[in-house]
Every structure is written in C-alpha cells, then in structure tokens.
Design goal:
- The protein is mainly alpha-helical.
- Helices cover 61% and strands 0% of the residues.
C-alpha cells in the first residue's frame, strides 16, 4: 500500500448524490483497478448496503437465502463471493449477481497486484541492505 495519505481519484466512483445502492443497482461503473493503490473487500459494499437499509446479518441472510455465517464471511473477506453466493446476494440486495462477482474479481486482482508489488519492494530493500 502507498505510504502517502492520498487517493488516486482515477479509480473512485464520483459522488453524484446517489446512494451506494443506487450506484450498484445501475450498470457497472467502469474504473481501472490498475490505477488504484488500495483495494476494497466486497464485504464493505455489503456492509454499506446493510447499514443503509438498517439490516442485521441475520436479516440479510434470511433475505438472501444464505446462512448468517456466509454473510459474516463475506463481510470479513473470509469467504469469497462465488456464483451461488452472488445469486443469493442478488436476491437479498437487488444488486446483480454479475455485479457481486465483478466486485470479487476486482478485489482479488487488485489484492494480488498490490501484494506482488509489496513483495517486490521488500525483496529490493533486502537486496540493497545486503549489498551494504
């Protein structure tokens, strides 16, 4: 992750007055995760929706046809959103399963990219220190 306290606004959905639910219910917003130096777990979106709709984990699970443990796992990124989970989340939130799967894919891609970048930087630092 970046050591600076700045955000690359090329990868942020602009604030146009819509709620998160309204943004996610619309067509997928095109952004380029490669321009971001951070990532968002898909569960953060679910958490925002739950707060917006004043829903508990149990209520979200019941609406989605998923177990509370699955909802909790998505919220904490301990469980990846699979097609089955995405269909349940679509049922419970009104957000398309495609949208949930895209969020999971973007998260995994960005996390892998940033983890690899951090490992490369650590390796370079260790090689430089060993050369001293």
């Amino acid at each position: 992750m970046s050591e600076q306290n700045s955000i690359n606004y090329d990868c942020v959905i602009p604030d146009d007055g819509r709620t998160l639910g309204e943004v996610l219910a619309g067509p997928l917003y095109p952004f380029d995760p490669d321009k971001c130096d951070w990532y968002v777990i898909p569960g953060a979106t679910l958490e925002d929706l739950m707060e917006e709709r004043n829903l508990t984990v149990a209520e979200t699970a019941a609406r989605s046809g998923l177990s509370p443990a699955t909802i909790w796992g998505v919220l904490t990124a301990e469980i990846a959103i699979t097609e089955e989970i995405a269909v349940g989340l679509e049922k419970g939130t009104g957000i398309s399963s495609r949208g949930w799967l895209k969020k999971q894919s973007n998260y995994e891609r960005q996390k892998t990219r940033l983890d690899t970048k951090q490992q490369q930087q650590t390796s370079q630092t260790l090689r430089a220190a060993a050369a001293l």
